[in-house]
Design brief:
This protein has 100 residues and is mainly beta. The protein has one domain. It contains one helix and seven strands. Bound molecules: zinc ion (ZN). Zinc ion binds next to loops.
């Protein structure tokens, strides 16, 4: 009984946000109004697997291209990010803003 509840507690107190298994979290800043925007990239839908024929930058295994819109202005921010096997950023590019 006791260990059952202890296990439960561990599940619910596990780390969230940037260390969440299903998301990669990126912070960007709008070039026009300086708004800081947190972008959550879903590994299962936003991020695509790369293949040899895609000619990826060295060590890149995953790829995402996304348009980000803040709440304070209508400036669109375009991000392109390549990740390695462990979802560490291997290469990144941004237009309309900057990475934080
Ligand atoms: Zn803005």
């Amino acid at each position: 009984m006791g260990s059952f509840f202890n296990n439960f507690k561990r599940i619910f107190s596990s780390p969230t946000a940037s260390s969440n298994d299903n998301f990669v979290s990126i912070n960007v800043k709008c070039q026009r109004c300086s708004e800081e925007i947190n972008v959550k990239l879903r590994k299962t839908s936003d991020i695509s697997r790369l293949y040899e024929e895609d000619n990826p930058p060295s060590s890149a295994a995953y790829f995402v291209r996304k348009e980000v819109l803040g709440e304070k202005c209508n400036n669109l921010i375009y991000i392109t990010i390549y990740f390695d096997e462990n979802f560490n950023i291997a290469y990144k590019e941004i237009k309309g803003g900057e990475f934080l």
